[in-house]
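Module 6 notes. Inverse folding takes a fixed backbone as the condition and produces residue identities as the prediction. Think of it as a translation problem where the source language is geometry and the target language is the twenty amino acids. Below is one complete input and output pair. Work through it position by position during the lab.
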């Protein structure tokens, strides 16, 4: 995560100098947790929360999509709730569809709706969003994306995601380190998963995100030929870990001119005016915000999640434990 402070990787003098502030942060965070958890809402369906103790992107949203599809292969009916980061919601909660406006509901919500074909709701208050989800659909499992610290939403199980490269960084909480909660918080969750490869010291399972073939951002221009491997392209990423996307393009053989934006950046056409006609390659998360641009240079690189055997086994066990089969009328489906 190149955008994070380098001193968060090691327990050096600067991290130690900030340690008094860590005590304040942990005291406030602990009080907030106790206050919200004491008044947590309980729903009429099991709730699985996917989140992280680490700040920034760690691959939570792709894992949520994979878990939802996996639950469907077992015959269950999952629904998903998200905060709607990057959107314009205030107090409302809204249903999300593949054609929803990411400026309203957020880029990750639109991606999730397209990737899972599951009912999706967004809202700052995930309790309200989950209640609206259950009132409008026959879900028997609610999956909350990035909700580990949203303690007002009662949960039946938790999955924590870590970046395999960073791990826990220097192991300190903000601002001396990259953690939202102390490392011992991981002992409370049901499953710890590493994104990017195995981390047996921290996680019992892992997955990798692997790129697939480039696709045009604007569907009406789908007849165009994608950039050739080895070509020099502009690489655009407004995600938590831009370096990972840039490295994926390099590994695919492209010569890149990197352009990193803040996570969930709202793109305007001028943001992509780089003064030449070279192709522009972006992430799928960024592409949903650029589909209205009349620009034939724009391409995106979809990724697929490849779980290890431990993740498949442990995730299926967790889903089965949450949903069960007694008295349920499930109809098995096949994963796309």
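Target side of the pair, the amino acids:
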């Amino acid at each position: 995560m190149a955008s994070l402070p380098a001193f968060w990787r090691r327990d050096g003098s600067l991290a130690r100098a900030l340690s008094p502030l860590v005590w304040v942060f942990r005291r406030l965070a602990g009080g907030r947790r106790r206050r919200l958890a004491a008044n947590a809402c309980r729903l009429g369906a099991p709730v699985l929360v996917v989140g992280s103790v680490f700040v920034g992107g760690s691959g939570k949203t792709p894992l949520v999509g994979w878990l939802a599809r996996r639950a469907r292969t077992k015959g269950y009916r999952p629904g998903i709730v998200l905060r709607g980061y990057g959107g314009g919601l205030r107090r409302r909660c809204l249903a999300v569809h593949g054609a929803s406006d990411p400026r309203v509901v957020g880029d990750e919500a639109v991606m999730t709706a397209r990737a899972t074909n599951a009912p999706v709701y967004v809202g700052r208050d995930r309790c309200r969003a989950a209640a609206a989800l259950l009132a409008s659909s026959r879900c028997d499992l609610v999956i909350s994306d990035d909700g580990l610290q949203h303690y007002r939403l009662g949960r039946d199980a938790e999955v924590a995601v870590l970046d395999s490269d960073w791990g826990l960084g220097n192991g300190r909480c903000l601002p001396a380190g990259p953690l939202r909660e102390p490392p011992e918080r991981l002992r409370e969750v049901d499953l710890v998963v590493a994104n990017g490869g195995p981390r047996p010291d921290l996680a019992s399972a892992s997955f990798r995100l692997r790129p697939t073939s480039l696709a045009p951002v604007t569907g009406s221009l789908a007849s165009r030929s994608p950039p050739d491997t080895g070509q020099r392209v502009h690489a655009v990423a407004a995600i938590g870990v831009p370096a990972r996307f840039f490295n994926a393009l390099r590994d695919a053989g492209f010569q890149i001119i990197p352009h990193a934006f803040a996570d969930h950046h709202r793109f305007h056409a001028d943001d992509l005016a780089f003064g030449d006609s070279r192709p522009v390659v972006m992430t799928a998360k960024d592409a949903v915000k650029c589909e209205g641009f009349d620009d034939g240079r724009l391409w995106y690189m979809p990724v697929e999640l490849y779980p290890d055997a431990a993740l498949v086994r442990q995730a299926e066990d967790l889903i089965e434990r949450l949903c069960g089969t007694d008295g349920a009328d499930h109809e098995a489906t096949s994963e796309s």
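Reference fact for the lab report: Confidence is low (pLDDT under 50) at residues 326-336.
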